[in-house]
User: What shape does this take?
Amino acid sequence: MVVVGVTGGIASGKSLVSDWFKKLHIKVLDADRIYKKLIQSNASLYRDIIDAFSLEENPNKTIDFKVLGRIVFNDQEKLQILNAITHPYVIKEIEKHIEHYRHEDLPLLVLDVPLLFEANMAIYCDAIICVYADRETQISRLMKRGYLNREIAIQRIDSQMDLEEKKEKSDYVIDNSWSRDASYEQFRDILVKIKKKDRM
Assistant: This one.
C-alpha cells in the first residue's frame, strides 16, 4: 500500500485536492475530521481541551471551534498546548486506520493532514504532496471564506509552518494560486507519477 500525505497551508486548497482523490474512489483519511470525531467519542480528549482552555461545557460534549480558534490563534503558546494535547490522540487513531487498510490490501491511501510536518506524521508517508498558494492568494481566500479582516487572516496563516518550507520538504507540489483546471492538471500528472513509482 502506498501512503500519500497531502498537506498545505490554511486556504491553500488542500481540501480541493483531497476531494479529487475521493472522486477517483481513493480512500482519504482527513485528520481534521478524525480530530472532531474524537472530541465527541473520547471523553479524555474532550476533558483535556475543556480544562486547558477553560471552555464552557455543554451536554452534547461538543466544542465551539470558533471560540477555541480565537483563543489559540491569538497566542502561539496556547496553540502549541492545543497541538500537544490533540496530536497524540489523532496520531494513534490514524495509525489504527493505516494498519486496518494495510490488511484490506488497499493500493493507495491518502492522509489529509494540515500539520503533517509539525506533527511529525511525514514518517507514515511514501510520498508527500504540498498544495501551495502564494501568500496574497491565501490571505484573500481566507478573508472571504472566514469573513475575517486582513490582520486576523495573516495571523492565522502565520500560526502554521511557512508554506515555502512545506513546499521544500514535499516530494510534489500543486501550485493552486491560479485556476482550478491548472491545479487539476498538476494533480493528474502527480498521480500518474505516484502510480508509476508504485509499479517499479
About this structure: The chain has one domain: 2-194.
